[in-house]
Amino acid sequence: MNPYFLEYTIIGIAGLIFGAALERGRMCFVLATNNMFMARDTKILEGILWAFGISILAFGIIESLGIVPIQAAVEGVFPSGWYDLVGALLFGFGIGLCGACMSGLIFRAGSGFTQNWMQLFGILVGTIFFAFFIFPLTNFLYWILHTIPWLTIKPGLSDYIPHQWFGDAVWGPFVVALIFGVFFLGLGLYLTKRRFAKISKERGENYKEPVITWDMLKFKEAYSPRLGGLLFAVVAIIVFLVSYFTVHKAAYMGVTTPYGSFDAYILAPFINLFTTVGHYKASFLPKVSSNWFQIVPVAIPMTLLVITTFAGATATAILGGEFKWRVPKRKIMFLQNFIGGILTGVGARIALGCNIGTLWSGFLMFSWAGVLFLPTLVLGMYLALKFQQAIW
Amino acid sequence: MAEEKNLEDVKPDETLDVLGETCPIPEAMAHKKLSKMKVGQVLEVYTDHAAAVENSFPSMLNKLNYPYCVTKTGPGEFTIKIKKTS
Amino acid sequence: MAAVNMKKRKNHNWCGITFLACYGLFTIYASFFLSSLNKDKIIGKLSNEAIAGIKESFILWGIIMIIGAILLLIREYVLKSGQEEVKDTERGVSPHY
After folding, report:
1. Mean pLDDT lowest among A352-356, C41-45, C82-86
2. What SS3 class is residue A248?
3. B77 pairs with which residues across the strands?
4. What is the reported pTM?
5. What is the spatial distance between Cα A336 and Cα A105, in angstroms, rounded to a whole number?
6. β-strand partners of B71
7. Residue A70 and residue A343: Cα distance in Å, rounded?
8. Which of A26, A328, A388 minimises the CB distance to B51?
């Protein structure tokens, strides 16, 4: 059987699970940070920390046991550097304006929020804007590959933390996973415990939340974010293992690059973004890289994953009786979401990925991308929250 | 808790319609509106952002210590009545 | 007050089902352009085997999504379970927190 057919088909199933986890678990980074800043509520954040912790530990074990050899795992590792900081700030402000991160957008749009469809449109426009103006005119690829040495870590092995710390030792990934994974998982468990203690004190009874109940499986009830986090980790592991065992190329989760493919598919009858346009004289790089679309493949497994994630989110919203065509009363929200979407798209492209592709997968790749992405992402979201509190 | 039950039939003094809007907006606008209202008045919020009803509103209102009452009015659609007490 | 809200309530599930069918149609639509977009690519070109496999998978998933939409339509209008759910309103819901 064609290995590519197998890879895409199984990853499609992973997308359905991802969509269900997003929609039912309300897994959205903006929601998590806003709740934390505004109400000191950590429920959603706990889910995200679980997702990070469990998946990082699992990836460390997989790589250390050699189920996926380190050499194969390293092939998909992104470079990291200054662009993570810059991109994450723009991206964070954009998603803060829209009220939905790159993954939250999928379940919001999937369950009928029209303003998030507007954000999606903004992302598509922003990606084209980046691809044809920012990328060639600023000579973006050059600055990624040759820039201030201490900020840009070269692609490949040298940006792989286990290699930097422990050389070629097989147990390297496991030790690094232990450090990051235990930190995230421990923080998640601590926050859960603290929240339960707080509610117990308010209600005067011993409060506990089940991770999984029968009603959740029947879509009657929203998932506990911790179940959502667990499913997130399962999805990342499925994607990683399936892509390695079918086409021998380890793939990490990512949802930003597919939006570029969607641009190309939507515009395909009119214009071929992958080849014909965007050769600017301003670029002093070889002609081949003068527009961003020319350096990405036509399809990556994540393209299908994003579509099936939309399908999974919509299907669970309908099954849970929550689907609704939601139009905001204030039409200005469409404008805000369009602008936010453009910032989201451009920021994600500058950082080479979004909160999934660079932040989460950055940790899964054991590269510095995740660590660099996080602080300015939170800063951007905080600024967007303050901005919105001031104007509305 | 008794006060929360009574809220169901109270006529609201102010209403806030944030149907179709996500994340910080329902909470931020409700918070702003509440801070401008007089003590003892009731605010009614219409929202269809389920996550706001499940997490952010309860934790925000518990922190402020305002009694509130949530009514489910349709698929993913809720009405929240909040009484400003201080 | 509750009576007013009752009037506002609507069933939008048909809209979600249309969405699901549209995702399926989009996937099938996208599959037609894979080979033509790949043909003139300079960097990141996929092999012919890859394009064939991806195309088949896209079409398969497109069909699965459309079948899913049809199943949901049956659930909605033949079994009527979706409509029951929408009608169910609760008063004084205590949200889990």
Report:
1. C82-86
2. coil
3. B74
4. 0.89
5. 15
6. B79
7. 35
8. A26
**Residues 202-231 in A contacting C (C-alpha not used; CB under 8 Å):** 209
Residue B72 at interface with chain C, using a CB cutoff of 8 Å: yes
* Whole-number Å distance between alpha carbons of A25 and A322: 13
Q: What is the mean pLDDT of residues C34-59?
A: 84
What's phi and psi for B45, nearest 5 deg? Answer: -115, 130
Lookup: tokens for B11 = 């006529």
The pLDDT tens digits for A172-181 are: 889 999 999 9
Q: Subunits touching A (CB < 8 Å, at least 3 pairs)?
A: B, C
- Residue of B70, B80, B81 best to disrupt the C interface, most CBs of C under 10 A: B70
pLDDT for residue C37: 83
Give the single-character DSSP code of B54.
Answer: I
Question: How many angstroms separate the CA of residue C32 from the nearest CA in chain A?
Answer: 9
Q: Is the pLDDT of residue A145 over 90?
A: no
CB B83 within 8 A of CB B1: no
Q: Helix (H, G, I), strand (E, B), or coil: what is residue A327?
A: coil
Has residue A91 got a pLDDT over 80? yes
pLDDT tens, A277-331? 555 444 455 444 567 887 788 888 899 999 999 999 999 988 887 888 888 888 8
Neighbours of A269 (CB within 10 A): 10
**CB-CB contact of B22 with B86 (8 Å):** no
Residue B23 annotated as catalytic: yes
ipTM score for this prediction: 0.86
Task: Dump the DSSP string for A49-80.
Answer: HHHHHHHHHHHHHHHHTTSS-HHHHHHTPPPB
Could you give phi then psi for residue A218, rounded to 5 degrees? -90, 10
Q: Closest residue of C to A11, CA-based?
A: C57
Q: Which residues of C touch A251 (CB under 8 A)?
A: none
Give contacts of A321 with chain C, Cβ < 8 Å: 82, 85-86, 88
Q: Can you give the residue ranges of every domain in chain A?
A: 3-391
| Chain A residues inside the 8 Å CB shell of B53 | none
User: CA quadruple A140, A145, A147, A148: dihedral positive or negative?
Assistant: positive
Which chain C residues are within 8 Å of A35, Cβ to Cβ?
none
Q: What is the pLDDT of residue C2?
A: 44
**How far is the C-alpha of A353 from the C-alpha of A106, rounded, in Å?**
16
C-alpha C79/C-alpha C82 separation (Å) is 8
Range ranked top by mean pLDDT from A72-86, A100-114, A262-276: A100-114
